[in-house]
Amino acid sequence: MEWLTMAVQLPITFLQRMRELLGDEYEAFLSSYDNPRYIGIRVNTLKIDVESFRAISPFNLRPIPWCPTGFYVEEGVKPGKHPYYHAGLYYIQEPSAMAPAEALDVNPGDRVLDLCAAPGGKSTQIAAKLQGQGVLVTNDISGDRTKALAKNLELYGVRNAVVLNETPERIAKSFPHFFNKIVIDAPCSGEGMFRKDEDMARLWENDWTTKYSEMQRDILKTVATMLMQGGRIVYSTCTFAPEENEAIIADFLEEHDDFELIPLPHNTGFSPGRPDWLSHVTETKGERDFSADKAAQTIGCGRLWPHHIDGEGHFLAVLERIGEAHLGDELYVAESNNSIPAKPERPSKQKDRLRGSRRDNGVKEPDERELLAIWDHFAQEQLRVDFLGEKVLFGGHIYQSPVSKERLQGLKTVRPGWYVGTIKNGRFAPGHPLATALRSGEAVRTLRLTLENGEAVRYLKGETLEIPASRIYCHENVAPKGYVLITVDGYSLGWGKWLDGILKNEYPAGWRWT
Ligand SMILES: C[S@@+](CC[C@H](N)C(=O)[O-])C[C@H]1O[C@@H](n2cnc3c(N)ncnc32)[C@H](O)[C@@H]1O
């Protein structure tokens, strides 16, 4: 393959196609590759509101026009190297990539599917819009990538997400007409990311548009079966090729007369879709003609161009299913009664009972109900939270799940919900994600660390800290001994265990500051 060397190396066949399509605009497009790439952060409103973050922000912030919680930070700053990043106060995200979740128009209580979700940029953005109410089913076909997805959801303190590692077809069988919002951030040829990620340009092949467009068409068709009437799908790619963009939308509209395209506003940096480029698809790929009516509608799609806006190349389209959505009244979808018992047993009694039951017959393990009761007791004694959803035991761990167990039956589930902890030797050991999703008043003991004396970083490095009892803030008559929620300036970081002036560090080894 031949290349043109700019600040990045660009494939010549790609540039020839862009010259043909863009005409007079081509030179401006090409010179955008010599501009620096933009770094964006998005404030996590599950943890802090935008104004409060602006007041404490360690970086200069410039608003991103299409995302009210998104900001550009200056080149050279390292937003991933700050205790506030470890507190999940913001997500580092390419600015254009913030557009699709905004167009999805998510509200608390919605049932949302993020089908191609790893590493979680859109999922964390959607979760912030849900504000803990409703359900987010987040999925990726790559098992490896779901690990980063789960970790990001945990870092950002998401309480109502299920993480799956499935094919669209298998999810569709379990969730027919279940969702009212779906985002498909489709696998694509990635042409819009060449400036940000040189590997994308290096690996690009001329036939990728054909390969990916077949995949995208199948995904969109399958996903439509999971959307309820009145629901909305946002389809997005980070590529320029019309085969993967307007052509996918025109074909979909042709085959689904119960859907309409909702035109995107073009006042926030979005350029219109390019119906005129569909003839290029027909000519070069020999594909059938698009109906004039459906083709014309694709002008309502949105394109983000690197020579028009401060961000990389993106495409998005909003599709709505005609009809009215009926979500029901529950904040969560799970139907089971999950109330915490009024008078839980003391842990010591539970421990005796569990040990006793093993002694009686030599083999009996505590059953699920007994283990969940230990979690109930911990929550009752140590936390000040109204837990929503269904508590479930899964792979030896306890979760609060926003959907009923039956829904997930047979699906490759990475996380059935919010991981709250596990039972070890008859006692509840709180999980790290329980801490990251708590606000400072929600645990009975809190320790506030600050940036100034370096204690927050020492905690994040896994060090044991000497802390006098007077610094442990305790609710009511609770003693300082026990699990303590550690915060930086009041924003949760993780657990510590305090005893006699020593804070044992419970920050997980894999998350540590290096
Ligand atoms: C553009 S990336 C997603 C980025 C993500 N939405 C974000 O904002 O962080 C596309 C993802 O689609 C996944 N993928 C590819 N084919 C898929 C399929 N058939 N079903 C679900 N996910 C798929 C890939 O593993 C990849 O992680």
Automatic annotation (TrEMBL):
The active site is at C238. GO terms for biological process: methylation. The gene is rsmF. Keywords: Cytoplasm, Methyltransferase, RNA-binding, S-adenosyl-L-methionine, Transferase. The keyword Repressor does not apply. InterPro entries: Methyltr_RsmF_N, MeTrfase_RsmB-F_NOP2_cat, MeTrfase_RsmB-F_NOP2_dom, Nol1_Nop2_Fmu_2, RCMT, RsmF_methylt_CI, SAM-dependent_MTases_sf. This is Ribosomal RNA small subunit methyltransferase F. S-adenosyl-L-methionine binds at C116, A117, A118, P119, G120, G121, K122, D140, D185. Residues 29-322 form the SAM-dependent MTase RsmB/NOP-type domain. Transmembrane segments: none annotated. It comes from Paenibacillus segetis. Belongs to the class I-like SAM-binding methyltransferase superfamily. RsmB/NOP family.
